[in-house]
Design goal:
Blueprint (H helix, E strand, L loop, with lengths): L10 H12 L23 H7 L8 H18 L11
Helix pairs in contact: 1-3
């Protein structure tokens, strides 16, 4: 069973969401697709939705990016690499 949204986001959409969540711009290195990289991957949640009536809690890329960034910052803060920011998500 796949937990997903049934649609995908581009790399550039994801980068923009992370920039928004971080509240700052950062450099991005553009490169050609590597041999073997897939063009698109989207989780099909049909089975899990039909069997378990499951739906994602967060269905918004900006919210997902903010939560992921907060989680990463919490891990790094716990390892002494960064100071924790005030939660904004």
């Amino acid at each position: 069973m796949n937990c997903g949204y049934g649609r995908g986001y581009s790399v550039l959409e994801t980068i923009e969401a992370v920039r928004n969540a971080a509240g700052r711009n950062f450099a991005v290195q553009y490169a050609d697709r590597r041999p073997g990289d897939i063009m698109e991957m989207v989780a099909d949640p049909t089975l899990i939705r039909s069997m378990l009536d499951w739906v994602p809690l967060y269905d918004n890329l900006d919210t997902i990016a903010a939560h992921a960034l907060a989680w990463e910052e919490k891990l790094l803060a716990g390892q002494g690499f960064i100071e924790r920011r005030a939660a904004s998500a």
